[in-house]
Write a structure and sequence with these properties.
Helices cover about 50% and strands about 15% of the residues. By secondary structure, the chain is an alpha/beta fold. It binds hypoxanthine and zinc ion. The site of zinc ion (ZN) has 6 residues, from β1.
C-alpha cells in the first residue's frame, strides 16, 4: 500500500458517518454462524467457516437470498439477536459510524416458529447496549418480505403492535422482480396511519417503474438502492426535485452483479446529477465489507473524490430519521473532521 492509500484509508475510517441500509441478519459472520449453531444445536449444512465463505458466490439477488435465509436459521434466542447487533455496532464504530438505522426481517423468524418478540426484544437490547457502552445511536426498521403475500405482511404488522413505539419504520425487501411495490400499497398505507416511516428496496434489479410505484403508491421516505432510476430521466428529475435519499450499496451491487465493475458504479453519476446518494453495506458478512469498506472501495475504484466522500457522509445524516438537531450535529461533525484533515 502506498502512503497516499494509507492516508485515504485513515481518512475514510475516521470520517463520521451513519448507516441507513443494513440488514442485521446480513451481518451474521460465518464464525458467528458456527458459534450460534453450536450453542443452539442447529445442524449446519457446511463443514467449516471456509466452506461457508466459499459458498458466497452469487450471480443475482435470488442466489444470495437462498443462502441468506438458510444462514438466519441459527438465530434462535434473544441473546443471539443481541449479540448479533452488538457485533455489528462494534464494527460500525471501528469504521467511524456514529449511528445506524437497521433492518430486520421478522417473517424470516416467525415463519420458522420464533415469536415476533424474540428478534425484536433481542435487537432492542443490543441497540440499548450499543447506546450505553459504545455511544452509538440507532433506530429499528422492520422489513416485509415481498415474495410473501399481503396477508402475511398484515399479520406481521399486527404482531408488531406492542413494539410500534420502538420501531421507527417499515421497509420492503427480498426478491424484487415479480413483486412490485403495488402489491403492498394497502400495507404501507396502514403503516403510515400508525406513524411509521416508510422505505422500500426499489430499482436494485427491478425496473424504474418500481421506483415510481414506491414513491407514488407506498409514499416512501427513502428508496433503498435505486440504481435503475438512472435509466429514466423523468424519474431522476423527480428524485432530485424531492431530494429523495437513495441508500446505495456498492459492494452489494458488485457481489449481486447489479454492476459488473466498481469502476462503473453509478454513485459518481448520481452525485453529479444532484441525487442524494448515501453509501451503505446492505449485508456486510455476505458481500465482503462493512460501511467503511464500501466508502474505501468507491474511493479507490470509482473515481470518487475526497469532496464526494464528505458529501456522501453528510448525506447519511441528512437522509436519516434523526431529529433536525441531530442531523445538524452529524453534518457538522463531518465538516469539522474534513477541515481537520485539510
Ligand atoms: N435486496 C433485497 N432483499 C434483501 C437484500 C437486498 O439487497 N438484502 C437482504 N435482503
Ligand atoms: Zn438491502
Amino acid at each position: 500500500m502506498t502512503e497516499n492509500q494509507d492516508e485515504l484509508e485513515r481518512f475514510v475510517r475516521g470520517l463520521p458517518k451513519a448507516e441507513l441500509h443494513l440488514h442485521i441478519e446480513g451481518s451474521l459472520e460465518p464464525e458467528q454462524m458456527f458459534e450460534f449453531g453450536r450453542r443452539n444445536k442447529v445442524d449446519m449444512p457446511f463443514a467449516n467457516v471456509e466452506a461457508v465463505r466459499a459458498a458466497y458466490e452469487f450471480s443475482n439477488l435470488q442466489d444470495f437470498l437462498d443462502i441468506y435465509y438458510q444462514g438466519a436459521a441459527v438465530l434462535r434466542t434473544e441473546q443471539d439477536f443481541e449479540d448479533l447487533a452488538m457485533a455489528y455496532f462494534r464494527r460500525l464504530q471501528a469504521d467511524g459510524g456514529l449511528y445506524a438505522e437497521i433492518f430486520f426481517d421478522p417473517q424470516t423468524h416467525t415463519d420458522r416458529g420464533l415469536p415476533f418478540s424474540v428478534a425484536a426484544d433481542g435487537l432492542l437490547s443490543g441497540m440499548a447496549k450499543a447506546a450505553t457502552e459504545l455511544g452509538i445511536g440507532s433506530k429499528l426498521i422492520m422489513c416485509f418480505l415481498r415474495h410473501l403475500d399481503e396477508d402475511s405482511a398484515f399479520a406481521t404488522l399486527k404482531q408488531a403492535e406492542p413494539y410500534l413505539d420502538r420501531i421507527a419504520g417499515v421497509g420492503l425487501d427480498s426478491s424484487e422482480v415479480g413483486h412490485p411495490p403495488s402489491k403492498f400499497a394497502r400495507l404501507f398505507e396502514a403503516a403510515g396511519e400508525r406513524g411509521l416511516k416508510r422505505v422500500a428496496h426499489a430499482g436494485e434489479e427491478g425496473p424504474p417503474e418500481y421506483v415510481w410505484e414506491a414513491l407514488d403508491l407506498l409514499k416512501v421516505d427513502r428508496i433503498d438502492h435505486g440504481n435503475r432510476a438512472l435509466e429514466d430521466p423523468r424519474l431522476i428529475e423527480r428524485l432530485v426535485n424531492e431530494q429523495m435519499t437513495l441508500t446505495v450499496c456498492p459492494l452489494s451491487n458488485l457481489k449481486l452483479c447489479v454492476v459488473d465493475d466498481l469502476a462503473r458504479h453509478p454513485i459518481p453519476r448520481m452525485l453529479e446529477l444532484g441525487l442524494r446518494a448515501t453509501v451503505n453495506s446492505d449485508d456486510p458478512a455476505y458481500f465482503g465489507g462493512y460501511v467503511g469498506d464500501n466508502y474505501l472501495a468507491l474511493a479507490r475504484q470509482s473515481g470518487v473524490s475526497r469532496e464526494d466522500l464528505v458529501k456522501l457522509a453528510k448525506n447519511s445524516f441528512v437522509g436519516s430519521f434523526l431529529s433536525d438537531g441531530d442531523v445538524i450535529r452529524g453534518a457538522h461533525a463531518v465538516d469539522l473532521y474534513a477541515d481537520s484533515f485539510s
